[in-house]
TrEMBL record:
InterPro entries linked to this entry: ATPase_AAA-3 (IPR011703), CbbQ/NirQ/NorQ/GpvN (IPR050764), ChlI/MoxR_AAA_lid (IPR041628), P-loop_NTPase (IPR027417)
Family: Belongs to the MoxR family.
GO molecular function, one term: ATP binding
Signal peptide as annotated in the record: none
Protein name, per record: ATPase family associated with various cellular activities (AAA)
UniProt KW Ribonucleoprotein keyword: no
Presence of keyword Repeat: no
Stored Pfam families: AAA_3, AAA_lid_2
Keyword annotations of the record: ATP-binding, Nucleotide-binding
Residue span, ATPase AAA-3 domain: 46-179
Length: 333
C-alpha cells in the first residue's frame, strides 16, 4: 500500500508541475500566489485573494478554470446584489393546459469554480448566501436542498484599500476561506515581462491539464499523504498559542490579540501543508511548510485589540514571532 501511494504521489506531482507550467504562460511572476491557490484547491477549500486592482486576480481565476478543466462562473458583487442573484429562485410557470407550477432556476453558484469578484461590496445578507454553499456544498431554496457540482471551489477577490460602499466580511464568512492570499505588486523585471507578454498581437494560450474527476482524485491523494506526529504537534502548538484566552498563549498574544483562530485553522494548516509539500515534490510536509503557511491561514482568523492597533502593532508581526518561536523557522523575506 505504501509503494502504491508513493507512486500516486509522484504521478500527481508530475501532473501538478505541468499545471503550474501551463498557468505560468499567462500568470507571470506570481508563483507564490499560484501555489497557494492550487494548494487550496488540492485541499478542497476556498481562497480569498486580497490585492489592488490590476494585479491579475481575475486573470488567475480564468486561467485556473481552463487548466483545471472546471466549469466556471463569475459574479460581480455590488451593493444591490440579492441572494437570489447568486443562488437562483423559483419561478411560476404556466403550462399549455393552463396549470401552474413552480420551477427552480439555478443561479450562477452552480459551477465548479465560482469567482466572487469584490465580495465585500455586497450586503451582509447577500454575503451570507454563500455560507451554506461554502461549508456544505449545497443550497436550500424554499425548503428544498440542491447539491452543488463537485468539486466546488470559491475564489473571492477583495480590494484592501477601497472601503467606501463596502461591507466587511463577518468572521463566520472569513473562517470558511481555507486561506487568504495577498497579491502584491510585481518587481521591475516581472513587470517588464508582463508588459511584453500582454501587449503584443497575440497572447499565450493555456491548455487543460486536469478535469473535475481527476481533481477530486488528487484531493483524495492529498488526504492520504502521511504527516509526522511532530508536524501535527507543531500545528496544534501554533494555533492554540494564538488564542488570547487559551492556556498556551504568550503574554504578547494576550496583550495584543482580541480573538484567535478556531479548529478550522488547524484543519487548514494540516491540509495545506500536505498540498504544499506535494507541489514542491516532497512526500511529506515539514516544519518549513507550517512556517510558510502560518500567515495565509491565520491572518484572516485573528484580530488585534483596540489598544494594539493604537500602538501600531501589526498582526503579521505577531504571527511571524509566534511561528518562529514554535517552529524555529524564520519567515523568509
Amino acid at each position: 500500500m505504501a509503494d502504491e501511494l508513493l507512486a500516486e504521489i509522484e504521478r500527481l506531482g508530475a501532473r501538478l508541475a505541468d499545471a503550474r507550467g501551463a498557468i505560468a504562460t499567462r500568470i507571470i511572476g506570481q508563483d507564490r500566489v499560484v501555489d497557494l491557490t492550487l494548494a487550496a484547491m488540492l485541499s478542497g477549500g476556498h481562497a480569498l485573494l486580497m490585492g489592488l486592482p490590476g494585479l491579475g486576480k481575475t486573470r488567475l481565476v480564468e486561467t485556473l478554470s481552463t487548466v483545471m478543466g472546471l466549469s466556471g462562473n463569475r459574479i460581480q458583487f455590488t451593493p444591490d446584489l440579492m441572494p437570489a442573484d447568486i443562488l437562483g429562485s423559483e419561478v411560476l410557470e404556466t403550462a399549455g393546459d393552463g396549470s401552474r407550477a413552480f420551477r427552480y432556476v439555478e443561479g450562477p453558484i452552480f459551477a465548479q469554480l465560482l469567482m466572487a469578484d469584490e465580495i465585500n461590496r455586497a450586503s451582509p445578507r447577500t454575503q451570507s448566501a454563500l455560507l451554506q454553499a461554502m461549508q456544505e456544498h449545497e443550497v436550500t431554496i424554499a425548503g428544498q436542498t440542491h447539491e452543488l457540482p463537485s468539486p466546488f471551489h470559491v475564489l473571492a477577490t477583495q480590494n484592501p484599500i477601497e472601503q467606501e460602499g463596502t461591507y466587511p466580511l463577518p468572521e463566520a464568512q472569513l473562517d470558511r476561506f481555507l486561506v487568504r492570499i495577498d497579491v502584491e505588486y510585481p518587481d521591475r523585471d516581472t513587470e517588464r515581462a508582463i508588459v511584453l507578454a500582454t501587449t503584443g498581437i497575440t497572447e499565450e494560450e493555456t491548455r487543460q491539464i486536469f478535469d473535475g474527476p481527476s481533481l477530486i482524485a488528487a484531493q483524495g491523494i492529498v488526504r492520504r499523504m502521511p504527516v509526522g506526529e511532530g508536524i501535527v504537534e507543531l500545528i496544534l502548538d501554533l494555533v492554540r498559542a494564538c488564542r488570547p484566552d487559551g492556556e498556551e498563549a504568550t503574554d504578547q498574544v494576550r496583550k495584543h490579540v482580541a480573538w484567535g483562530p478556531g479548529p478550522r485553522a488547524a484543519q487548514a494548516l494540516m491540509m495545506l501543508c500536505r498540498a504544499q509539500a506535494l507541489l514542491e515534490g516532497r512526500l511529506a510536509p515539514g516544519p518549513e511548510d507550517v512556517a510558510k503557511l502560518a500567515r495565509p491561514v491565520l491572518l484572516h482568523r485573528m484580530a488585534l485589540s483596540f489598544a494594539a492597533r493604537a500602538e501600531g502593532v501589526r498582526l503579521e508581526d505577531v504571527i511571524d514571532e509566534m511561528t518562529a518561536r514554535i517552529t524555529h523557522v524564520e519567515r523568509a523575506a
